[in-house]
Amino acid sequence: MEALEEKEEAEQTAEDLNSVNSSDSLQDVEKEDVEQVSIPSDVPGFDWSSIDTSHLPSSYQTNSLREKKLLVIADLFSQQYTHVCPDRKPLFLHPVNECGVEKFVSTTLRPTVMPYPELHNWSGCASFVSNYLTREPLKCPITPPSSLYSPSTILKYQRGNCFDFTVLLCSMLIGAGYDAYCVHGYATREICTLDQTQELCPLLRKPQEVRPASKVEKFSKYRIKIPSELHSKFELQQEAKKKEEIGGVQKKEEEGEVEVEKSKRDPLHGLRVHAWVLVLSGNRKVPETFFINPFTGNSHNTTDECFLGIESIWNHRNYWVNMQDCRNGCKDLTFDLSNGICWEIMLPESNELHTLLPERAKDDMVSDPNYGCCAVETVYRASVRRPTYVCLPAASIFLTTLLHTAEFENQYSQGKKEILYKKAKLERWAPYMNGNGLVERLTVYADLDRTEVVEVTEWFKNREDMLDMREVNKQTQLITDYFRPGRPNLLKAHTYTSLEPETGHTMQFYHEARDDDLWKRVESATEMTEYFVGRADFLHSRHVEFGERENGMDTAGTRSDLSPRPIVQIKECFHRNPEKPADEDIEECIFMITEDSIWLTYHLEDHDTIASKVAFLRAIQRDRDRKGEEIFLTRDTCVKYQPWSSEKHKNVLNLYKLMWQLRKGLKELKHQVRESEAEV
PANTHER family under this entry (predicted)? Predict the structure, then answer.
């Protein structure tokens, strides 16, 4: 039996090589080219034949009676398939496992419910598998592997080919409740070799803008006709010439890129074997059937042009062969597995089997917990040549014991993962791998060769200063830090070019949690502007202008507490307070510190056209007498224009009280400005 199978494998390999040599698309492919694409492994120094299998359970090293019957059924099905479809490739039915024992592919699946909430949905499972495992290419890119290891072994050594990735991911998805299947088919070179250099990084994709239906313009015959704009023909000709020149340059660049792509055309297009996951709609409220590429963890539509055809699919219960035409890839395929014309099922399901089996046989239909094989019982009927079966999944807990919490958190086998995209590079690290908490970095380049850096974005975790993300523009040298809530000053974002003071800083805060409702602060060497949201006094902005220091020190990089900058002017702006009359509600208040004056501008009523204004010139007169400070209000020191105010508001006593109130608040205002400087 084993000799016969080895002979069949040799014949299959010979047929595959003959089909490659006889293909029209491979006429120019030499033997050296085939050797170049047949690389054994991406990880040098690792040999699968050297792994220790002595500790594995007996179910890995031998086949039970039910498994032997299933292998016989698989051989009979393969013979019938070869007879009906002699031109198609042999099926991927029973490769050997890590112990060299043939196992039916459905018995290798291990439906497992992982104890981590992140692995209870398809996106979390797919992301974990793509990050946790290291990709190894197939020994021959146009034939499926001769071996298929158990998910426990793949999980232990954290590496495998596309079939190993698929089996592990499908086991997790089935355990999570999805209607998932392993797919054996064909894909493009970029999918098979994990080449994403021609794809746009997902982090750079802009969301599609959806136009609201309510904004659709309704035309009416009574609408006003807008006169047409007059244009100069000469100017239009000049603009057309410029566009032609620019378009010619772009066209040459595009032609150059097309020539590069043509030079990289794959001679094995349509023949490269790949395995991925199929998720059918229905379970877990999946609205639409889709594919999952286990190498990237990304979902794809079933009409994606990257997937060129399907040979067969299987889950932990059955095996189906695709009988549909794949000339257009997977676009026209239907995934109704109950359709016997489109999908040839290997083991027909029967609801009457439990009534046909004896009680002892029903009790024996429990799989070995040490291996993922399914219990299979056959009942041959006189009217049906093919046996009827029942296949029950194993209640596996073995995968969960292999995946500890520390290993789950460190999802990268080498501590780091690097992905190259079109004009971009994405790097990912395990938490706590870097001392600064860096877990992800996206570098954007200006060219396809990735030599000129344009922008760098970094993501952090588990930092004491709550730093979450940092954006660095290499062209302008502008840096923006984003923080999570929890900092003492409630800083949300910080934009700067240097961490030295007075060199240009823009700060955003979590204003809902601050006592002063500060939302944004913009500071430079000569001025500082603060913006507020939701204050009780209706203040929404404060602008401060600074002068040069008297000692002639440089303004940039100087600590404000050692040599504070002199304040020249403070300007505050207020929103309208509906509880006050407009002529008493200040809209703008300017303190001219050096000129010793105060300028006020009031709000307007709905029917007013000119705002009321009051100016206190040289308002603060200091008398060096022991009596202290005195304020003198005269016609020379107070200028007012209040056309809409009543006689009460024009009273000098009211103006005197207002000036005294503003003078008193100026001291507190200066103190707040110094505190803002210190906070920066």
Answer: DYNEIN REGULATORY COMPLEX SUBUNIT 7
